[in-house]
C-alpha cells in the first residue's frame, strides 16, 4: 500500500514528530539548526507540505532523542491503526 502526503498514516507520523519536538521544548528553528536545514523545511514536514525521506526521518528523530528502532515501531503501530 502506498502512503501519500495526504494519507491518514502520514498525517499521524508527522503529528507524532511535531509532538515529540514540542514535548522536548525544541523550536523549529533549533531543530532546523541541528539538522542543518532551513526552519521552513521543518515547518513544511510537520504541516504535510513536504515529504520526509527515510534518511531525514532517522536524523530528525535522533535529533529529538528517538532511535531508528522507535521510529520503526511507531510507523508499524500507525499502519496497524489505519488498517483497522
Notes on the protein architecture:
The chain has 84 residues and is mostly helical. It has helices at residues 8-23, 28-35, 39-46, 54-63, 68-82. It has a single domain, classed as lambda repressor-like DNA-binding domains (434 Repressor (Amino-terminal Domain)), CATH 1.10.260. 68% of the residues lie in helices and 0% in strands. Helix 1 (8-23) crosses helix 5 and helix 2 (28-35) crosses helix 3. It is globular and about 40 Å long. The two termini are 14 Å apart.
Task: Identify the notable features of this structure and list them briefly.
84 residues; mainly alpha; 434 Repressor (Amino-terminal Domain); 5 helices; globular
List the helices and strands and how they pair.
Blueprint lengths: L7 H16 L4 H8 L3 H8 L7 H10 L4 H15 L2
Please work out how many helical segments DSSP would assign.
5
Average pLDDT confidence is 90
Residue share in helix: 55-70%
Identify the CATH homologous superfamily. lambda repressor-like DNA-binding domains
How is the CATH topology named?
434 Repressor (Amino-terminal Domain)
SS-based class: mainly alpha
Number of domains: 1
Low-confidence blocks of residues: none
SSE pattern: HHHHH
At CATH level 2, the architecture is Orthogonal Bundle
Determine the N-to-C terminus distance. Answer: 14 Å
The backbone outline, from C-alpha atoms, is globular
Q: Under the CATH scheme, which class?
A: Mainly Alpha
Beta-strand proportion: under 5%
Total beta-strand segments: 0
Largest sheet: none
Oligomer designation? single chain
Supply Rg: 12 Å
Amino acid at each position: 500500500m502506498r502512503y501519500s502526503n495526504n494519507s491518514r498514516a502520514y498525517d499521524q507520523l508527522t503529528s507524532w514528530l511535531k509532538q515529540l519536538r514540542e514535548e522536548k521544548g525544541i523550536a523549529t528553528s533549533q531543530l532546523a539548526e541541528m539538522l542543518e536545514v532551513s526552519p521552513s523545511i521543518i515547518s513544511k514536514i510537520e504541516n504535510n507540505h513536504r515529504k520526509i525521506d527515510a534518511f531525514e526521518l532517522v536524523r530528525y528523530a535522533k535529533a529529538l532523542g528517538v532511535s531508528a528502532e522507535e521510529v520503526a515501531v511507531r510507523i508499524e503501530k500507525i499502519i496497524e491503526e489505519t488498517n483497522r
